[in-house]
Amino acid sequence: FKEWSAAAAKLQAGELVGEDRSYEAPPKDTGEAMDLSAANLTLTFGLGRSFFVDDDGKDRFGFASKLPEALVRIPHMTGDALEAKRSNGDICIQACADDPQVAFHAIRNLIRIAGGRAVVAWNQQGFGRTSSTSTTQVTARNLFGFKDGTNNLKVESPNLLKKHVWTSSENSANSPAWMEGGSYLAARRIRMNIETWDRTRLREQEEIVGRTKVSGAPLSGGDEFTAPNFSEKGRSGPLIPADSHMRLMHPDQNDGVQILRRGFNYTDGADELGRLDAGLFFIAYVCDPRTHFIPMLSTMTSSDALSEYLRHTGSALFAVPPGVKDENDYICSGLFS
Known about the structure:
The chain is α+β, with helices and mostly antiparallel strands and 337 residues long. Helix content is 21%, strand content 18%. The chain contains ten helices and ten strands. The strands form two sheets. Strands 1, 2, 3, 4, 7, 8, 9 and 10 form an eight-stranded antiparallel beta sheet that branches. The model has no long low-confidence stretch (mean pLDDT 96). It has helices spanning 2-12, 49-52, 100-113, 158-164, 194-197, 202-209, 245-249, 289-292, 294-303, 333-336, and strands at 42-48, 91-96, 127-129, 183-192, 233-234, 237-238, 260-261, 264-270, 276-286, 310-320. The longest helix is centred in the first third of the chain and has 14 residues, at 100-113. α1 (2-12) packs antiparallel against α3. The protein is globular.
């Protein structure tokens, strides 16, 4: 973690991870980001449950006593088609940048630094963020063509972030001191049944989502950011159907719970039948997955009309410690103190 911290500081500044001193040794930096800017690169690190204990609850590396109670196993959900090769892990690294080559370069060099001590379990490349995290950003669209994350938490709402995203003893029961000011990263690789969706009537698509496709406005009327009126009736029932995605995921239907979405679209070629392997690499940050993520995921997979067009193929949960404070600090330092 100390080596990764030093390298991350250089990578995020657009610098090489090391200086070459010999032609007889491999280069310190792999080089594919030379002459490129830092491209707003950010690096986020997290620890999985298996970093602390194995499947039988036995201590793996001497940190079992520091396992956060909130770092639970995500229960099996209705319709799960999870692949072991795309799920879980001891450690995660999320690299985000305006240039995918910069993000790849960062991951590649961090992997090389960890050589002999850690190996890659799986990775997922994404593109085109699927939710805005600031009021200055336009709401992006997912691969179904709908605006995604209209009600997402924004950086301009620090009080809501404190309540729902940053972990503390106030919003996460029995949270350890080393996680104070951190968060939990929940990831789901969600394959979309693109071909089936593309043959679905527009009216049905909008009723499944609960919003109009072009403007993103709730079906009860207004514009994208108009508060939905769930009691508004039409000829055949609520204008926003009871099993629509927006209705079931709205804070008003989840005891006020909110999550910080930071997902991306993905595409990984095609399967043996020629269908696109594409969809949403869902990523969310929450203060406690037991109260903020797992209940919503359970509702979505069991009751959401959108689930008919989705297949969850990967799943993971990681504890993300607070960020590095200064040049003398390092990733996960609180865990070792």
